[in-house]
Amino acid sequence: MTMNCARWLEIAFSSEYYQSGVKILVKKTDPTTTLAGLAGKKVCAATSTTSQTAVQSTPGVIPVLAATHTGCLVLFQEGKVDAIAGDDTVLAGLAKQDPYAFVPQIQPLTSEPYGIGVNKDQIDFVRYINRVVDTVKSDGRWKASYDKWFAVLGPAPAPPQSLYGRG
């Protein structure tokens, strides 16, 4: 899940294992590569997400909300929205479900550092998870996993540097 200050108050996190961010999903035939480029068009976002905030704060975009990202995909496939905004990881999964969908290779609109959330009293468990995450990053499994699940987003970036604690 995304590591943020509010969540750090409630739980502990592993080191960052992926740097996600809000991007857009459009039809493969749509040349748009930015959220701002969708001005005048309907863009779906799941409620209570950073994607909703990004869509609602982009001038000219017509926000359409759905309870879930899958709900957005249904609206997209029915032609009721022109695009979907969401974390790149979510959009990768949606793109795999729709052969006409595409996630342009753009800089994300937000920074969403992913970590594994753990009960804040289980520090030894966090240390164990960090060892596993570090091993997966260094032995090639991180890249192999990216290539399997997120190749639609473009070439695998380098895994995030392991930082421990809130920094």
Folded structure, characterized:
The chain has 167 residues and is an alpha/beta fold. The chain folds into two domains: 51 residues, D-Maltodextrin-Binding Protein, domain 2 (3-Layer(aba) Sandwich); 83 residues, Periplasmic binding protein-like II (D-Maltodextrin-Binding Protein, domain 2), CATH 3.40.190.10. It is built from six helices and nine strands; from the N terminus they run αββββαβαβαβββαα. The strands form three sheets. It has a five-stranded mixed beta sheet, sandwiched between helices. The protein has a two-stranded antiparallel sheet with strand order 1-9. A two-stranded antiparallel sheet has the order 2-8. Helix 2 links the parallel strand 4 and strand 5. The chain is globular. The two termini are 18 Å apart. The model has no long low-confidence stretch (mean pLDDT 93).
